[in-house]
Write a structure and sequence with these properties.
The structure is a single chain. Strand 2 and strand 3 form a beta hairpin. The protein starts with a helix and ends with a strand. It has a six-stranded mixed sheet. The protein contains twelve helices and nine strands. By secondary structure, it is an alpha/beta fold. The chain has helices spanning about 5-15, 35-40, 50-85, 135, 150-160, 180-190, 200-215, 230-235, 255-270, 285-295, 310-315, 325-330, and strands at about 100-105, 110-115, 120-125, 170-175, 195-200, 220-225, 245-250, 270-280, 330.
Length: about 325
């Protein structure tokens, strides 16, 4: 339906309150109808009823548009509140409980989350201090703006269980969102040579930069960048084939972005490198990603049981009401 402004202008035009531009120079305005009757008569057969009836229809259309606009705003507020506050009345799968999150605040401006993983490993992540907007909820490069997704939990758990694999290596995280949790974990505990944390959203990248300052014991080279996948070659001309490991959590489900992610992995990954892509199947989305990657010459395999801890949580959750394996269990690809 056209916006409210359209209906108001059309109603004003029909009631003669505003002038219109008519190609016929004899016409002084719609209100008088003089000099333009021949033009109007050509369309009179298609107009049913009087001007009063037309205005009534326009009034109704304007009212319906206003009501839809109000309802849309109301739905956005409910969705934002549910995502931010985890309303108990909203059925949802909350995650694998592989991490515990403790909110810490020294004052109104200085606040962060202390994320504790297994065996006492902790990561401090800056807590975003602003209202959630509709922009935060839309677009493939904004999905990590809201919360810690289960795939991030699973990938971080896998990284902790295999820290030795990352010693002295170059690590890249693509689409790390507001936390880049797996990348921060490997930077703090994996003793890599260097870590590049990236996302396609500038707010997310700024938040990750603040998080780095909250983890002063990180002693490797760490870089944070805003890198939309489709601009990888343009923005990082010297990084082709540089990275031994690439991390990506829950980034394959948007059809429009999948090919760009594959292209970025193909560009950044070293010849003998490994991309750890963790995501639920979600219908055919993970398979489509694997097909795209294979067509680019990358070797792909999907591993269901890659972490004993994640697997045991998966088996427990299979007995619960809101858990769906296809939608929620992250596969390592």
């Amino acid at each position: 339906m056209p916006p409210v402004k359209f209906w108001r202008q059309l109603k004003a035009l029909a009631s003669g309150r505003v002038s219109h531009s008519c190609p016929d120079t004899r016409c002084a305005g719609f209100g008088s109808m003089e000099g333009c009757s021949d033009t109007f008569d050509r369309h009179s057969d298609s107009v049913q009823g009087s001007f009063e009836e037309i205005l009534k229809v326009l009034d109704q259309a304007e009212h319906e548009c206003e009501e839809k606009k109000f309802n849309a705003r109301k739905r956005w507020k409910i969705l934002a509140k549910a995502l931010k506050c985890r309303l108990p009345s909203v059925p949802h799968f909350g995650g694998f409980d592989l991490v515990t999150i403790k909110q810490i605040a020294r004052n109104h401006q200085d606040a962060w989350n202390e994320i504790t993983l297994s065996n006492g490993y902790t990561i401090n992540v800056q807590r975003l201090k602003r209202k959630i907007t509709a922009t935060d909820l839309m677009g493939f490069n904004n999905t990590g703006n809201i919360c810690l997704w289960p795939s991030e939990e699973a990938l971080s758990c896998y990284v902790l269980e295999n820290l030795r694999d990352f010693h002295g290596k170059w690590i890249l995280e693509l689409g790390g969102g507001m936390t880049c949790l797996a990348g921060l974990v490997v930077a703090k505990y994996g003793n890599p040579y260097g870590v590049h944390l990236t996302d396609g959203n500038s707010v997310s990248v700024d938040n990750v930069r603040r998080s780095l300052r909250l983890n002063p014991t990180i002693n490797c080279c760490v870089k944070c960048s805003n890198i939309p996948w489709e601009r990888s070659r343009e923005l990082c001309p010297g990084d082709e084939g540089k990275f031994d490991f690439i991390f990506s959590a829950d980034c394959v489900f948007f059809d429009d972005a999948r090919a760009s992610l594959v292209d970025a992995i193909d560009y950044f990954l070293a010849v003998e490198g490994i991309a750890l892509v963790v995501a639920p199947k979600r219908g055919h989305t993970l398979d489509l990603f694997a097909t795209d990657a294979t067509s680019r010459g990358l070797k792909c395999r999907q591993i269901q049981k890659y972490s004993e801890r994640v697997w045991m949580k998966h088996l427990e959750l299979m007995m619960t009401k809101h858990y769906r394996e296809d939608l929620h269990y992250p596969i390592l690809g």
